[in-house]
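Colleagues,

For the teaching module next term, I've prepared a clean inverse folding example: a structure given as tokens, and then the sequence designed for it. I'd like students to try predicting residues themselves before seeing the answer, so please don't circulate the second half yet.
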């Protein structure tokens, strides 16, 4: 081959097949080498490579993601792809879980939250619930796992204060000073104790259901959904004969459908009631099933049976003039 400049050579067909040869000097001797062997066994910098697919697939060593969620934790979305979570985040210092599952064998898993997070959740299998306490779920004041506990659910207690109650579950809430008070306890016998406050009916007509009991044949309901007690002011019934100013007093208690009432009607000089006369006509609850009771005079030497119907209390017999007539009865609504 005549001497010529490289630039004067005819261009090779590309891409190369790999079988082409080039002269090389090896151990002071000129030899030939194939193109395919030029880079064999040599490290090649990744910086010199050009991606043909963006993003690089997981199978090729990439993440498969073109973008990430800020502070999101990457996880395997399928067996071949990754994604990042917005509910589980880590900003390099603080870890926050929007919805958090805990393996029951894990001793302690806690989060301290990030700026703007109001409460801190600490789920402890042992120890952190307090000496002798078992699995607990604690809500801590902002800051750290050692911060003030503002609420705690303890799954088991064996401390001296709880031994007598054999507490299987307690719910405790802290006051502004951080002192925990037990609000509710379920003991190992299944009994529930509310230590502070009352059991409050949240929805009308809901209450205590006794369907675990075997009822009588005529049962129509096993739900206790009402309790009420108070005062009422009996009005002047049409069957009263009054001398002087009228006055009255009344009390009632309702348990479920049963209403018990007591009352007095008084005349400044005297009051009397005729046979089959209405003593008062404004019962606190309208009667559904009639009830019977008694009325008597203040001297307790005259009396009559009374019956409740509608909203009235009616005397079966007359009671002559007296200072006050007292009556009581029970009926059903």
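(Answer key — instructors only)
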């Amino acid at each position: 081959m005549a001497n010529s400049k490289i630039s004067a050579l005819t261009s090779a067909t590309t891409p190369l097949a790999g079988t082409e040869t080039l002269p090389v000097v090896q151990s002071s001797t000129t030899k030939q080498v194939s193109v395919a062997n030029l880079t064999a066994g040599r490290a090649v910098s990744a910086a010199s490579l050009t991606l043909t697919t963006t993003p690089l697939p997981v199978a090729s060593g990439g993440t498969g993601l073109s973008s990430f969620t800020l502070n999101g934790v990457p996880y395997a979305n399928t067996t071949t792809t990754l994604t990042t979570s917005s509910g589980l985040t880590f900003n390099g210092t603080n870890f926050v879980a929007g919805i958090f599952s805990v393996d029951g064998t894990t001793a302690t898993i806690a989060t301290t939250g990030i700026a703007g997070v109001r409460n801190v959740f600490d789920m402890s299998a042992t120890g952190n619930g307090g000496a002798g306490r078992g699995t607990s779920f604690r809500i801590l004041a902002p800051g750290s796992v050692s911060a003030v506990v503002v609420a705690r659910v303890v799954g088991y207690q064996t401390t001296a204060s709880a031994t007598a109650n054999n507490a299987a579950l307690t719910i405790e809430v802290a006051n502004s000073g951080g002192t925990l008070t037990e609000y509710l306890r379920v003991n190992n016998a299944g009994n529930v104790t509310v230590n502070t406050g009352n059991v409050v009916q949240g929805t009308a007509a809901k209450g205590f259901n006794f369907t675990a009991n075997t009822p009588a044949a005529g049962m129509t309901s096993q739900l206790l959904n009402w309790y009420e007690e108070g005062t009422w002011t009996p009005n002047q019934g049409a069957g009263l004969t009054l001398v002087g100013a009228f006055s009255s007093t009344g009390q009632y208690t309702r348990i479920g459908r049963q209403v018990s009432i007591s009352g007095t009607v008084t005349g400044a000089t005297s009051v009397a009631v005729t046979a089959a006369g209405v003593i008062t006509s404004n019962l606190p609850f309208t009667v559904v099933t009639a009830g019977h009771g008694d009325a008597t005079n203040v001297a307790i030497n005259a009396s009559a049976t009374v019956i409740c119907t509608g909203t009235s209390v009616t005397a079966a017999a007359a009671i002559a003039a007296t200072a006050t007539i007292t009556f009581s009865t029970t009926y059903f609504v």
